[in-house]
Design goal:
Shape: globular
Strand content: 35-45%
Oligomer: single chain
Number of helices: 5
Largest sheet: 6 strands, antiparallel
């Protein structure tokens, strides 16, 4: 199916009635093909029991218009016109957006769908979005059609932040052994194309690295799609002398993928509410498993624990309270009002990013025996009620449950995010659709500016065209 889209933007002066009109045509990305045509790790199949949870496609995602395509994102800079340019980076988040409904919130970045003028055509859909004088103000250089959910709050705002991820699939792993659950919970990297995952933990004075085969696109004669038949390809215990996790049955520490050819481990006990912070660290080469290790003393830094996990427990337990991005470790302050940014290569380079408020700092998923309190979506750090962009701008958000359960980070393949988590015997693998995607890309010939003296109307007609 070939799609063609035409967009008309009308800016109307509220005092004079003068109308400025801009007309553009778009390009179509691979989003719809990805969602309907890819099936990583069998997320579209019911595989692990009668009571598996799966998304109801009708009304949530189908018909494609106005669901899978039912929202709009407005950007202040042009977007690269590439069929695989599916998401923005966090330094260029949308300045305005709208969904397939009327905006009944206080979010001034969000417009409303004109329900009277928007309707299905014989071969497509006509969308009409309207922004009042106070809504959607700023520079507009590019527009992208997105999902209805993605157009609600994009990546999250003070009015709402739970529509960014749509749960597609849940695979029940509750019947696995405790050791097998922890192995999955401790996955730090997934190579989807090569069907490989890496799980890291600390045990007996060593960093234990396990290389796993996961059925992603191929399935062996004796494999299943419920995570019970992962294959342990390699296990390596790398002895460390300086680095260790604090604690015994409850261990304080965390491993993270630096996405720079190394994994990193950090441990700072339960944190410190005053004085200097002590942080043990290890850097592990993905190529030959060689290590560097040491201890930092961070002057006047009051850090929350980077993470915890529990062994010898009745339940698989892991709390992730920090993350690594672009060579820096991000750790919540002990009193939840800021996030420390620590240069991994130079521990003297420490910055406290002021949140501007005291965070609740709860899990982004449901509360339980596991928690994921600091999540990475692309290069955007997402907390329960805050976000930190790539340039360390803080965005306060409404705060809410964005996941089912989280123990690992989420790992992205095209439009899907996949992770593991659970609570007190109710564990699973969870797959989500990242909803604020670019279904189309429409760059304006030159940027326009909307301010409070104007209303804006966007008419976007998307039709099925005959293939050439």
């Amino acid at each position: 199916m070939k799609l063609k889209g035409t967009m008309v933007i009308e800016l109307t002066d509220v005092d004079t009635g003068e109308v400025q009109t801009y007309t553009e045509e778009n390009m179509v990305t691979n989003v719809i093909n990805n969602i309907l045509g890819t099936n990583p790790m069998g997320i579209m199949y019911k595989t692990s029991g009668e009571y598996d949870d799966m998304v109801t496609w009708n009304d949530n995602l189908l018909p494609i218009c106005p669901n899978m395509i039912g929202g709009i994102l407005l950007y202040s800079e042009a977007l690269e016109e590439d069929v695989d340019n599916l998401y923005c980076d966090s330094s260029h988040l949308p300045v305005a957006y709208a969904s397939n409904d009327v905006n009944s919130t206080t979010d001034l970045a969000r417009g409303s769908l004109n329900l009277t003028e928007s309707y299905a055509l014989d071969n497509g859909y006509k969308f009409v979005w309207e922004f009042t004088a106070s809504q959607g103000n700023g520079t507009i250089a590019a527009v992208a059609l997105t999902s209805a959910l993605g157009g609600q709050f994009a990546y999250g705002s003070a009015a709402g932040d739970t529509s960014t991820l749509l749960e597609i699939r849940e695979v029940d792993i509750s019947g696995m052994s405790l050791a097998d659950k922890m192995l999955l919970f401790e996955i730090e990297e997934v190579d989807f194309e090569n069907e490989i995952a890496y799980s890291l933990t600390y045990s007996n004075s060593a960093v234990v690295i396990r290389k796993l085969r996961l059925p992603v696109f191929t399935i062996g004669l004796n494999e299943r799609l419920d995570d019970t038949t992962y294959t342990l390809l390699e296990e390596k215990a790398v002895t460390v002398s300086t680095f260790s996790f604090y604690g015994t049955s409850k261990m304080y520490g965390e491993f993270m993928d630096g996405k720079d050819g190394y994994w990193y481990g950090f441990s700072n006990d339960s944190g410190n509410y005053s004085g200097d912070a002590t942080m043990r660290w290890v850097k592990i080469s993905k190529t030959d498993y060689s290590i560097e290790e040491g201890t930092w003393t961070l002057s006047d830094a009051t850090l929350y624990a980077v993470g915890t996990r529990t062994e010898n427990s009745s339940y698989a337990m892991r709390d992730v309270n920090s993350c690594v991005r672009n060579g820096y470790l991000y750790v919540m302050s002990y009193n939840y009002d800021g996030v420390y940014k620590i240069n991994i290569a130079n521990s003297a380079d420490v910055t406290l990013i002021d949140l501007g408020f005291t965070s609740n700092f709860r899990s982004v998923g449901a509360t339980g025996s596991c928690s994921l309190k600091m999540m990475l979506i692309g290069d955007l750090i997402v907390g329960y009620d805050f976000q930190i962009t790539a340039d360390d701008t803080v965005i306060a958000t409404a705060g809410g449950q964005k996941l089912v359960y989280g123990a690992s980070q989420l790992f992205q393949y095209k439009n899907f995010l996949i992770g593991w988590g659970g609570s007190y015997g109710n564990e699973g693998k969870y797959a989500y659709l990242l909803t604020p995607y670019h279904a189309t890309i429409n760059n304006l010939d030159s940027a326009v500016t909307k301010d409070s003296s104007m209303t804006m109307k966007i008419t976007y007609t998307l039709t099925e065209a005959d293939s050439e």
